[in-house]
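Internal tracking record. Fields below are filled automatically when a chain is submitted to the structure queue. Please do not edit lines marked as system-generated. If the sequence contains nonstandard residues, flag them in the REMARKS field before resubmitting.
Queue: standard
Priority: normal
Entity type: single polypeptide chain
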Amino acid sequence: MSKIPFGPTYDEMAYPSHIDPKIRKEALKNKENELDPINLFNINWKSDSGEVHKLVLPKALTGVDCNIVVLLGKYFPSGSHKVGPAYSTLIEGCVDQTIIPGKHTILGPSTGNFGIGVSYICNLMKYDSIVIMPDNMSKERYQRIERYGAKLDLTPGTESDVILTLERTFELKKNPKNRSLAQFELLPNYRFHRHVTGNACVEAVKGIGNGRIACFASAPGSAGTLAAGDHIKKIFPEAKVAALEPYECSTLMNGGRGQHRIEGIGDKMCTLIHNILNTDFIALIKDEESVQGLKLIHDGTDILVENGVDRLDALAMKELFGVSGICNILGAIKMAKLLKLGPDDNVVTIATDGFDRYETVLVDLNKRYLETEDFVLRRWFRDVFLKANTDDIADYRLVSQKEKLFKQKEKDWLKFGYSQKYLDSMKDMSFWDSEYQKIYHYDELIKKMRED
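SYSTEM-GENERATED OUTPUT FOLLOWS
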């Protein structure tokens, strides 16, 4: 194993060129040795050459004039950008000395990717960990978590039952040896995405269209990723932020609480770290269309090509997305149509992970359909992508609409011990700006501990 300093700062995760060149070189050299702790310094959106990992979707696929730019999370260590919030939350606890090596066990409430990130980071930083998640997620998630050495504590249900993982975590936290990296409520998640993902989004559109961002669309799981929109709006004040929910579990839009298949989003709550002030639109995406879209991208290369997608582009996309990535792409298409965006405009969205943890999802899809032959995939190409429409989109820029979300947040979080005063403080942007500014404080603490 390589001998390394303590871990990267927020600044180094946003700008890996700021990492000590010797450490950066060693981190890049050891990417394939994923359990070498030097990979902490590969937690960023950048390629070896310093470019943001991204894809501008073929317009033959999206059916819209504007550019839809997708940031690719599969290139992060552990295969998902969720490793960033997991590291940020753990490192803040370390420098605050509320998490002590050899003394504390780390809890990771999750529906998958954050749990994978927690188990991975705890492996590299030598902490015992327990991942609390629903018992009906894709098998690939459980296998990867256990491969990284975490224990699983499973609660009943699916993605839509994540509240049960929070209740279980709340119980486990009563043991003083346990410390929770609670992605839904702890603000390092917000800080990581506002600073690291937000900066990556701004960099990603340089040289594309007008070089600006007209809309940022992302599904809230923990709502961490939506924090990128706060940075985007600082740079491009005209930008709109759209939160995407499963049609089958439309909690933010209308209090819906159903089951759905889009792993990683739609968790029957308004998360504590969701900055409601900067959510302009909420759009609903059907879960079956997200899974059908994944099937088409992964298995329908010839169908894409016959509909105008370059073969090399079609082949390149096969492994880049999971179900939530397709959901985000469909949301980006819907928002492009709603906002009537043209060829100079850019919509940015996120692919949290890649296909590697969804093989069983397509196996399940194939069981549900009598046929998934080419003529079916042709229909899905038209119906899922080209016919994506502006139905089920609500404008949340009105104060009255935002107040509905604040009420939902109160309903979800007062029972976990948060005060009304604290929740009310989130109704002012100064709360979020103040929390964001803490990255500079934590960067200094991290650098100091690296020197000790």
